[in-house]
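Narrative summary of target 7.
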Amino acid sequence: MKKLVMIGNGMAGVSFVEQLLKLNPHRYDITIIGSEPHPNYNRIMLSSVLAGEATMEDIVLNSWEWYRENNIQLHAGQTVTAVDTEARTVTTNLGLQLEYDELVFATGSLPFMLPLPGADKEGVIAFRDIKDCETMLSASKQYKKAVVIGGGLLGLEAARGLVNLNMEVHVVHIHHYLMERQLDETAAKLLQAELERQGMKFLLTKNSDTIIGGERVEGLTFKDGTSVEADLIVMAVGIKANSLLAKDAGVTVNRGIVVDDYMQTNIPNVYAVGECAEHRGIVYGLVAPLYEQGAVLAKKLAGIEADGYQGSVLSTKLKISGVNVFSAGDFSDGPDTRALRVQDDLDGIYKKVVFKDGKISGAVLFGDTSEGSKLFSYIRKGESFAGREKEVLFGPSGGGKASGPEDLVKAMSGDEIVCGCNGVTKDTIVEAITEKGCVSVGEIKACTKASGSCGGCKPLVEAILLETVGADNVSAVKEGICGCTTHSRDEVVEAVRSMRLTTSREVMAVLEWKNPEGCSKCRPALNYYLGMIWPAEHEDELESRFVNERNHANIQKDGTYSVVPRIYGGVTTPEDLKRIAEVAEKYEVPLVKITGGQRIDLLGVKKEDLPKMWKDLDMPSGYAYGKTLRTVKTCVGKTFCRFGTQDSIQMGIDMEKKFERLNTPHKVKLAVSGCPRNCAESTIKDLGVIAIDGGWEIYVGGNGGTKVRAAELLVKVKTEEEVLEWTGAYLQYYREDATYLERTSEWAARVGLDAIKKALEKKEERDALNSRIDHTLSLTQDPWKQIIENDELRSAFDALTAPVHAEAAAATVTKADQSI
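Modeled conformation, tokenized:
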């Protein structure tokens, strides 16, 4: 069997290997060498890790098991230092020497670091891999001022994550508008306005000059004499092909490793693919072209005759801080082009399609990118719209959309990429449906990874599924709560109620789960639904909870935990403050921080110290780790403020004491403002209360996180009792109706405010909902106190079970979370 060695373990290279295995799985003995100590992961999703929306496990594309199952030898954490193309060997930094018959460079790219004076100071980094994410996360705990140099996609993604980490972020860009390679000026200005609303600050047309400070960065000066303070500087100004190793081996290198149409270099049996490769003078940095290159190389090495790689028409479909943008082709205006533009400032939508000689040469979409795939298909095919240009956006009649996903699917060729994040073609999806029996988007995602990253291609995947199974079989397209079952959330909940199922195992057995043990997605969901429906009968299944909920504390990157005691309404006493300070000193807590929810966070606590700390604190758990009520933020209201109209402090304390320990589909944050000035930020909370003259306004469905959503007015009431009544009814309705892990903002947007109002408008309905929530609350206990008083529960926190090193901590989290 021939020996195939690939240098690099990134997305482009492993995609090539996946396709090679499909075409000719037994032709090569495959070895992969990767510098990072991780399996192949989705680099596009690094910003989600930084923003706290995903973990490392969530973005892994090919697990350790995948390599073993496919007999691939992976040497992770090793770097190739030399290639001998005459002896056909590669050597690593750890002394490993491997022979090869075929060699593939998939070394990717390196971040370009501006050669500024002071660039070697501590706190100046790039944003390229997991290690960079960890550095930024660590810095955010100690420092507060960040500067991102580069207003392109990577820079904005880094800025988004840093804003989410509560840092003050300035984005520096040399151009006069953002993302000039992907957007035109109009779309860029719309994007900038939205990002400014989310908290980013921008310094445009700025040319960086010097990084100032001592050992650590303290600021950045510009050529115009101005400056900005910074504790952290992230350079996101571009990438360059990682081609030095190939050059040292005698391979022809220009901007990248020069390859022909079959990805072959000037040396026999040596190939290059991905960001390190230069084809016809172009080095591509987007994933779709790299996957297309991999498909050509896979056919070449599998011994299959095929057309060579002809280059790619570039397109970008992205979601930046919750905003959808799309661009493709050449969308610049010129003397020989004409453009069709649509701008809707009310809904934040902008569309521009550029025509040249009757054909679409490029397009930009902002806010609504549903037509992106269709436009990209038109660009690739070179279809002429001479004399009927408006049909592209308005349809043949000029009054509506030209077509939907279903029409696009019919026009798509089999080799067209549907999922740009993971390089999945239409043929691959159809094969998963017809040959592997996938009958839902969830199953297709599990089988092919299509729609598994940003989710932007989900409508297209659904359309392909519908076209393939036929309209008569539309019922078969139903998506279950996970890949273990075809049953939807509503069907599971109904079965639990009607058949009085009280354990997860009963649900899985009765509803015939494909995987009798369940998975990390369905087991926590089932545990929640059972507890919500049968709070007295169902015994909480700790093994089905996430690691933070099992340990009643948030695990940190170094394996330690954070402890956040309950501080009702943000109001504390000197006695409690003394106790917290004494506990922090006793257990040598490295960091004590005031949280955004008006509480005190003790960070860096060893697992074995948790029960002892809880006992010494003698305060209730603040549930900073759970899918439950987190905080009720308050302002001082009329107690001290000259503008206050109601007692917001007492209202907040009453709400927090009533609803603490309430399990919910996702975390819930409340706030009470003492006047319409809204100092407690009530209009971006899951539920916010604002005092007005003679009463209160209750707002619902808000979110101040990465997907900002303003809360909507639910009702105006006169008394504090009515506030508690409506709050209880709303929270219970959310508990009973929402899908597990669905935030109130997502749920409210999905069901609509009118439906929520209708469900709560009758007093008897609100009373019934409050009766059920009161029954649930009467059964809850403080978990810290439970563990302190129970030897068996406390034994789980013994020193022998606590991770000592960061590596052990990571392994513990991975194993625990995989077990649910």
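Residues 398-402, 800-820 have pLDDT under 50 and may be disordered.
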